[in-house]
Structures are given as structure tokens and as C-alpha cells.
Amino acid sequence: MSGSADRLPRLLALVPYLMSHPGAQVGEVAEVFGLSEKQLIDDLQLVWMCGLPGHTPGDLIDVSWDGGEILIDNADTIARPLRLGIDEASALLVALRMLAAMPELAEVPGDALPRVVAKLERAAGEGAAAVSSQVAVDVDAAPDALPRVREGLTRRRRLSLRYYVPGRDEVTPREVDPMRVVIVDGRTYLEGWCYRAEAMRLFRLDRMLGVEVLDVPADPPAEAEPIDVAQGVFRPSPTDELVELEVTAAGRWVAEYYPCEKVTELGEGRLRVALRARDEDWILKLALRLGDTGRVVSPPAMAERVREEAERALTLYSQRS
């Protein structure tokens, strides 16, 4: 936390903390703020040069740390801690409620999380509590899937899945050593070592048509590492086919929603995007979903297949209407 964008909020929180903890020790305060003692002293030296306009000794904040004891004075104008806005508090409350719905916390004893939510609601006021209460937080799982996944995680047992793969429109059997449950973009996933793929995989709970807890200990191999889901679930492979699409302004969401290798502005809001296709059926569904807001331009064989499928769909539509 050395950048100015991080430092200013820290200083605005540091001064009220020191005002409410007179005589706090340098080491203790550094630990509270996650800093080294040198970083904290650098902050204190900056605070010492801050104050009201005029910049005379009587206008500046007076702070000292002789002997390791921090004393601060003449900082009444910023003595109150920063408060969260309604939107910030509402977002935090929704996130905490989603966290409470996580399967990993279902069996955790104690009421720490509900108490945090209650304190935040009181501190944020009725506005934030009212806004956040209108957002429903639900773990989206198929019937019986979540309890059995939870059982497999708790007992450390392998799971047998019947899993629907929409890209190929098929149901596949899987044996998975479960490792954790994660929520990404509002969807709930089981993460584990898949013996069919011989790799780590994420499985949406609402695509599990059957889950059975096997009497086999879960024993993922040493190379099984958690998947980084910070940028979303979809991770194209370099071996996937590179497909180029041209989209109108109404189709620009493709560049924001999917990882693209190249995005080129074409003017008038249009884009040319290059992305990796997991399989032909996936890119076909994407192209049909775009409709007249986008088209596949390469490879030519893919563009032709999209055209043929679109014509077939229009023919079927005209026959039924």
C-alpha cells in the first residue's frame, strides 16, 4: 500500500484512529493497519505536514511518536472516521449475505457473521439496509446437488456426477474429488479434480443432473491447484480455434463478457474481436444469439456454417408461422 491512491484513504482512517487511541504504540498501530513500522512513521511524517489553510504551526496537525508512543493533537476537523455511502454499504451487506449462503459456512458454529451484518446495518442506517434487503441472495443449485456436494466436501469423499454440457448438448458421467465451492457471477460451482478430464474443473451446480457420494476417499493429485476465478470462469486454451467476429454497437458486450485476444475499433461503435472458441457449437450459439448485431468473418468454414444454420432456423420459423 505505497501508492497515493491507497495512501490517502489510509491517512483519513489513521488520524481518527489515533485520536480515539491516545498513547497507542507504533508497533500496535502498524499491525492494525497492516504496515511496517517504517511505513507508519512515513505516514505520520506526512500527517505532521497536513492541516487547515494557512499552514502556520497553529493550522497544522501536531503529531509525535517519541519513545514509540503516538500522540496527536489539533486534528479535530477530521477526527470522525469515514462513513460508507448507501451504495457502498448496500454492496457490502449483499456480499456478506452471499457469503453466509456459502456451503462452507453452513456448518460453522457461532454467530459472528450475522452479528457483523447486524452491526453494519445499524451503522449504515435504514437506507442501506432497505436497499440490500431487496436483493435476493440464493445459492442456485439443482435439487439434492448442494447437500450431497457438501457431504462430499465434509467427509472428503469422491463424487459421481451426471453433468450436462450445454456446448455439446450431452450428459457426461464424471468422477470428481471435491475441493471447494465457489460463487462466480452469481453462479455456484463445485471445484475439484475431474478424473475424466484429468485436470481441475469447475462444475455448475444447476447443471448437475445427479450427484452420488462414493465410498472412496477424495485424493486429488499433488498438481491439483485452485483455479483463479478472479476474471471469470471461462478460460480459453491456446489450442482452441481463433475466431473473428464483427459486431455492431449493440453487440459490443461480447468484448466485455468474453476473453478476447484482440479488439479493434471499426468506427460508428462497431468492433472486430478475435477470441478462442471452445468448440464449433459454442461459437455457433454465440453467433445466433448475436443475430443482426454481429457476424463471424473467419474462419470461412465457421462463417458458412453459421449462415447455413441461420437459414435453417428461419426456414423452420416460416413453416411454423
From TrEMBL:
| Residue ranges annotated for the PafC HTH domain, each copy included | 6-122
Q: Which residues cross the membrane?
A: none
| Signal peptide, first to last residue | none
Q: Which residues form the WCX domain?
A: 242-314
Span of domain WYL: 145-213
Supply the InterPro entries for this chain: CBASS_pafABC_assoc_protein, PafC-like, PafC_HTH, WCX_dom, WYL_dom
Coiled-coil intervals, chain numbering: none
Q: What is this protein called?
A: Protein pafC
**Organism source for this protein?**
Nonomuraea cavernae
